[in-house]
Design goal:
Elements: H1 2-11, H2 13-42, E1 55-59, E2 62-68, E3 74-80, E4 87-88, H3 91-97, E5 101-106, E6 108-110, E7 119-124, E8 135-138, E9 146-149, H4 151-157, E10 164-167, E11 173-181, E12 188-193, H5 195-202, E13 207-208, E14 210-214, H6 217-223, E15 229-233, H7 236-241, H8 243-281, H9 283-291, H10 296-335, H11 350-376, H12 379-387, H13 395-415, H14 421-441, H15 443-458, H16 464-474, H17 476-514, E16 519-525, H18 527-535, E17 539-552, E18 555-562, E19 575-578, E20 587-591, H19 592-598, E21 605-609, E22 615-624, H20 627-630, E23 633-636, H21 637-641, E24 649-655, E25 663-664, H22 666-705, H23 708-716, H24 721-758, H25 767-792, H26 797-802
Helix pairs in contact: 1-10, 2-8, 2-10, 2-11, 2-22, 8-11, 8-14, 8-17, 8-22, 9-12, 10-11, 13-14, 13-24, 14-17, 14-24, 15-16, 15-17, 16-24, 17-22, 17-24, 17-25, 22-25, 24-25
Subcellular location: Cell membrane
Domain ABC3 transporter permease C-terminal: 260-378, 683-795
Protein name: ABC transporter permease
Length: 805
């Protein structure tokens, strides 16, 4: 049997090349996703600012929840908070009492000087020893109007001791540079103020962001027991220094897992279709084997070994290609700010090995499923079955198709009830895939019904149209194999693209309709500047807006903090219940989506954890409708600003703003936020779209190349090359139309449910963009049909008819 396997692979290189390409791409995609997932699970961030402190103490950056399950089993969960957790300055005394030496406290707050590397933070000079920073020139800052800048910031802005420069922060001002450090950090700029000035600008009286020391971690942890402080050593100091990197690492787990799972499902679907087409093309060969006494087990074993051979060749190569693909993804995510520059990929043997094994298993399973019916037919029926495909689907396939169809309908109903993007996104992709799998299983029936409709207009064209209609009608199974990947590509592409436009358009509309102010200044306007605008002539009302993320239980909710004076002239949240005018630092307004999810109404108390980990219990005073445009929760500005890293925000201005204040539109701010999130999803899911596009070309090229003998017979019968190309063009047009209709139906069903759950309305599908998706599929189909057909017709018809099958 092994000799037959090797001989088959050797003489059917073109057919197996398609399966090889599909498996290679699948392994590469799964490997890249596995590297992202592995990085999220085991990735670490090297400390920069805290590199000189063996022990670092910070606030707890997680919200914790403990549940007692059945049989007394305790389950503990922790989720990262959105802002930096602060510590009481008195915690430093406990650290000293534990025998620690060189105890240094630090405050960190946003502060920028013109151009510089990455993020820019202000600190007190006493914390320079944590790195350590030393002076290259000048002296340490001693007065409120003095600063020291790091070497990179000085070089980028042409600064030296004695220069005057403006520093943007929560309280911007002009400062004199008294010194420049020898050192600079790779991923952040450091601006040092005097100790008193830094603590004033940080805005957290009596609090510090970190404590550095030399001593025993166990002793220090014991001294801090009962507080919200956490102790870090070694590589863990990087997580303490870069809480944003830790949040990104957690997001990478969900992104890598969701993307990898989707990629694997798509890969199985594509590879199954490729092997199904390959087995269909070999039905006469397999029938001959059955007729000469080959048992069904031997036939399945032969096809399984062929798949194993292809998988063993494609899996490792694809896994190797997945590593540079993972690095490419890392660079793209870094460019969009979704992945911090100091979180490096974890490259271990596990993702490539897992990807190679997954490709091999998928190959063998797909091949055996594809060969199941062919291997089970009786020998006396084998040749007849090979010559004429069965008119009806098998009972098992029909039952499986109907079952998946029902599952897709259930998923669609579930999707219509999901109101958060985190919950809806994976279900959205799974729903589109379920509809596509149902189409693949019921493909021959759908193909025959579609051909019956399209045959009428095709026969209006002489010769080419008649031939196309006849071929499509006689090859329903082959047509179904070709339609499936094109339907998958169209449906997935439209779902991915227009899920973003659906939420983005709704958010932009809500933000635009709800912003009554004529002008919006931002995005980082300090409170002092907002006060100056408020006092300017011609300004009738000013609303300061700061944004963050809070946790209710362990779930994330977007929140905005607003000043309430004149709010009715700048902002309309579409209040449905209660009164937004009652909003104060002890109360909260919630969107209709959040109210439904959290089961709260005006008068109820909502317990939450603010961005820096501070718990709060707030009275619900209003429920509003425009949650997508303004966030699910709204609180008083002073409450939220005291618990965020950067209290600067946007300013809504009613009236005429003073000259020199840069303004933007509310729609542009909403579009920027939506596009930033969308671009990350586009890059991640674009790989799957690219994979399905490769599958479309692969399947169509295999199908066309296998028809060399058929095309030669047509030429011997008197058909010209032009007539044959017109025939193939008609077939391709029919395939594109059928796949376009099916893919559009899948996308619309999925997006309608997605829109109902997320926005309460319908999907946003730009017609020209959707036509572009279908046109792209048509272009791929045309290229994948025309090129193999021309190659197949290069040989003389008589030679092609007599060639080995």
């Amino acid at each position: 049997m092994l000799g037959i396997v090797l001989s088959t692979v050797r003489h059917r290189k073109a057919g197996f090349a398609g399966a090889f390409a599909a498996l290679l791409c699948a392994a590469a995609l799964v490997c890249a996703c596995g590297v992202l997932l592995d990085t999220g699970l085991r990735g670490s961030v090297a400390p920069e600012r805290y590199a000189g402190a063996p022990v670092v103490v910070t606030g707890d950056q997680f919200v914790h929840q403990t549940k007692i399950k059945k049989k007394g089993k305790v389950k503990h969960k922790a989720k990262a908070i959105a802002e930096r957790a602060w510590l009481p300055a008195s915690a430093a005394d406990r650290v000293r009492a534990a025998g620690a030496r060189g105890v240094v406290t630090e405050v960190a707050f946003p502060a920028e000087i013109g151009a510089g590397p990455g993020e820019s933070w202000g600190h007190g000079w006493e914390s320079a020893a944590l790195t350590p920073f030393t002076l290259r020139e000048g002296r340490a800052p001693a007065a409120p109007g003095e600063i020291v800048v790091d070497a990179a910031t000085a070089r980028a802005n042409g600064l030296h001791a004695g220069s005057r420069v403006r520093v943007a922060s929560a309280e911007p001002g002009s400062y004199r540079v008294t010194g420049v450090t020898r050192q600079s950090l790779k991923d952040q700029a450091a601006i040092f103020f005097s100790t008193a000035e830094a603590r004033r600008l940080a805005g957290h009286s009596g609090m510090v962001t970190a404590i550095g020391a030399t001593g025993s971690k166990t002793a220090i942890a014991g001294a801090l027991r009962g507080t919200r402080a956490t102790v870090h050593t070694g590589a863990d100091r990087g997580r303490a220094e870069f809480p944003g990197a830790e949040r990104s690492r957690v997001k990478l787990i969900s992104m890598g897992g969701a993307l990898g799972g989707t990629a694997l499902l798509v890969a199985i679907l594509v590879v199954s279709g490729t092997f199904a087409l390959s087995v269909q093309q070999r039905q006469r060969e397999i029938a001959l084997l059955r007729a000469v006494a080959a048992t069904p087990r031997q036939v399945r074993g032969m096809i399984g070994r062929e798949a194993l051979l292809i998988g063993l060749a494609a899996g490792p190569l694809g896994a190797a290609a997945g590593l540079p693909l993972a690095f490419w993804l890392r660079d793209r995510f870094r460019g969009l700010g979704a992945l911090p520059p100091n979180l490096d990929l974890v490259v271990s043997p596990f993702p490539p090995v897992a990807a190679a094994v997954a490709a091999i298993v998928a190959a063998v399973a797909a091949a055996r499923i594809a060969a199941r019916r062919t291997a089970r037919i009786r020998p006396v029926e084998a040749l007849g079955d090979a010559a004429l495909a069965p008119a009806r689907l098998g009972v098992a396939r029909t039952a499986a198709g109907l079952l998946v169809l029902a599952g897709a309908a259930v998923l669609t109903a579930v999707l219509a009830g999901l109101h958060t993007e985190a919950a809806a996104s994976p279900v959205t992709m799974l729903t589109a895939l379920a509809w596509t799998v149902a189409v693949a299983l019921l493909g021959p029936v759908i193909a025959r019904a579609a051909v019956a409709v399209l045959a009428v207009p095709l026969r209006a064209f002489p010769v080419g149209g008649h031939l196309a209609a006849a071929n499509l009608g006689a090859g329903a199974r082959r047509l179904a194999s070709v339609i499936t990947p094109l339907t998958l590509m169209t449906g997935l592409t439209a779902t991915i693209l227009f899920a973003q436009t659906t939420t983005g358009r709704a958010a932009v509309h809500q933000a635009t309709d709800g912003t009554l102010a004529a002008h919006v200044a931002g995005p980082r306007i300090p409170h002092g500047t907002a006060e100056e605008i408020r006092r300017a002539p011609g300004v009738t009302a000013v609303t300061e807006v700061v944004r963050s993320t809070v946790r209710v239980g362990l779930e994330n909710y977007g929140v905005q903090g607003v000043t309430t004076d004149g709010l009715d002239r700048t902002l309309d949240l579409d209040v449905r219940k209660g009164d937004i005018k009652a909003l104060d630092p002890s109360s909260i307004a919630v969107s209709t989506t959040a109210a439904s999810r959290l089961h709260v109404a005006p008068g109820d108390t909502l317990r939450l954890t603010l961005g820096d980990g501070t718990p709060a219990a707030l009275k619900v005073v209003a429920v509003y409708g425009r949650g997508l445009g303004f966030g699910d929760l709204t609180v008083a500005h002073d409450l939220l600003a005291a618990h965020v890293d950067d209290p600067r925000g946007t300013v809504l201005i009613a009236g005429t703003p003073p000259k020199g204040v840069p303004t933007v539109s509310a729609a542009s701010l909403a579009e920027d936020t939506a596009s930033a999130n969308a671009e990350v999803n586009y890059i991640a899911m674009g790989l799957i779209i690219a994979f399905t596009a490769i599958a479309v070309v692969n399947t169509l090229a295999m199908s066309t190349a296998d028809r060399a003998r058929e095309l030669a017979v047509l030429r011997l019968s008197g058909a010209t090359r032009r007539q044959i190309m017109r025939m193939l063009g008609g077939e391709t047009l029919a395939v594109v139309l059928i796949a376009g209709v099916l893919g559009t139906a899948i996308a619309l069903a999925t997006l309608t449910a997605f829109g109902r759950g997320m926005t309460g309305g319908g999907p946003s599908v730009p017609p020209l963009a959707h036509l572009g998706v279908i046109a792209w599929g048509g272009l791929l189909a045309a290229a994948a049909t025309a090129l193999p057909a021309r190659l197949a017709m290069r040989a003389r018809p008589a030679d092609a008819v007599g060639a080995r099958e």
